[in-house]
Specification:
single chain, alpha/beta, Quinone Oxidoreductase, Chain A, domain 1, Rossmann fold, 2 domains, seven-stranded mixed beta sheet, six-stranded parallel beta sheet, 15 strands, binds nicotinamide-adenine-dinucleotide, binds zinc ion
Length: about 375
């Protein structure tokens, strides 16, 4: 695995060919749009991919808060991109220069115990969530993608790049870690705590299972307005109202069949555990930077199932099929567009969603 990228200071000392611009993490609350060395092939199965479009994730905000300590100073952030293959290593069998691909936020060696089960997030050979985390990521002009044959998807025809960008992370995350782990079933009442892009992806894909009602819970009224547009039947601003009351009123005092946590705070995890009925499911999606209290004294006898998960992106192919057949519409996730060089402004817009109404911001060179 490569070391952190060295930021080049002062005037360009290398030719344009060997350097590029990228968003470089400088420690908690610090980031810089900087000139850095362009990536090159390290391992035989690598590709160097020119980034055509990329975006910012709630996980990038967690990194910038210091919640993800394994991200070291100098790391290029970003784990979502649609790009064009520029060069490939000698061990690459499928990708060819010039080919356009969806870069998954999860890399897969394809042969370890977990990858063979489709649990790519848990890859034992240096895959999993590495981009913009353990190795340099996609918020850059170019990115090195390890295990590129099995960590990318060819761009299908008939789906726009912006729609495809939603499948690098947020749609499979909401679906796999929220809806599938939570075992959403027809007739269920589903509570979703957090209506950011990931919570909205859970709201959107939960509808594939015909739940009776979806309740979105957030502190931000703009996000709750979006939740209604994405298919939530009820919304609760938990800064002003008690979501438990609303859930109990809807379920004859039983509680939600499924509670999905899509924020990543101690308080929101605890809230999710209070909303669920006996024998229900609590599906945690949020990235947590601090411990959360598990009230076993209240939960031990309720027969609940609690799941955690890092997305595998194992359902991307199936979900893209639903987009191609117009059964899943993801275009509304994109609210703002910036030039890649304006990424500092894009972070400001994304992180102040209460003011800007931002969901996904698309960045193009
Ligand atoms: P986001 O920051 O855009 O959205 C978070 C939402 O939570 C916002 O709408 C915010 O208003 C709301 N919120 C904050 N505090 C709240 C509170 N106390 N009560 C209710 N709502 C509150 O983030 P996102 O991109 O939607 O991602 C959501 C979470 O999912 C993050 O923790 C992210 O790191 C995580 N994530 C996990 C995986 C995975 O594989 N498990 C993958 C991607 C993202
Ligand atoms: Zn992400």
């Amino acid at each position: 695995m490569s070391n952190s990228t060295a930021v080049l200071d002062g005037t360009r000392t290398q030719s344009d060919k060997e350097t590029m611009y990228a968003l470089v993490y400088g420690g908690p609350n610090q980031k810089k749009w900087a000139q850095v060395p362009k990536p090159s092939i390290i391992d035989d199965t690598d590709a160097i991919i020119r980034v055509d479009i990329t975006t910012i994730c709630g996980s990038d905000l967690h990194i910038l808060k210091g919640d993800v300590p394994e991200v070291t100073v100098g790391r290029i952030l970003g784990h979502e991109a649609i790009g064009t293959v520029e060069s490939v290593g000698p061990g690459v069998k499928i990708l060819k220069p010039g080919q356009r691909v969806v870069v998954s936020c999860i890399s897969s060696c394809s042969i370890c115990r977990f990858c063979r089960e489709g649990r790519f997030g848990q890859c034992l050979n240096g895959g999993g969530w590495i981009l913009g985390h353990l190795i340099d990521g996609t918020q850059a002009e170019f990115v090195r993608v390890p295990f590129c044959d099995t960590s990318t998807y060819p761009v299908p025809t008939g789906v726009s790049d912006e729609e495809l960008l939603m499948f690098c992370d947020i749609i499979p995350t909401g679906y796999e870690v929220g809806v599938l782990n939570g075992a959403v079933a027809p007739g269920d009442v589903v509570a979703v705590v957090g209506a950011g892009p990931v919570g909205l992806a859970a709201i959107k894909t939960a509808q594939l299972f015909s739940p009776r009602a979806i309740v979105a819970i957030d502190l931000d009224d703009k996000r709750l307005d979006q939740a209604r547009k994405f298919g939530a039947d009820y919304t609760v601003n938990n800064g002003a109202n008690d979501p438990l009351k609303q859930i109990m009123a809807l379920t004859n005092g039983l509680g939600a069949d499924v509670a999905i946590e899509a924020v990543g705070l101690e308080s929101t995890f605890e809230l999710a555990t209070t909303l669920v009925r006996a024998c229900g499911h609590i599906a945690n999606i949020g990235v947590h930077g601090a411990p959360a209290m598990l009230h076993l004294e209240k939960l031990w006898g309720k027969d609940v199932t609690i799941t955690t998960g890092l997305v595998d992106t194992r359902t991307v192919r199936d979900l893209l099929g639903l987009v191609e057949s117009k059964k899943l519409d993801v275009a509304a996730f994109v609210t703002h567009r910036f030039k890649l060089a304006e990424i500092i402004d894009a972070y400001e817009t994304f992180s102040t969603a209460g003011k800007t109404g931002a969901l996904k911001v698309v960045l193009a060179p």
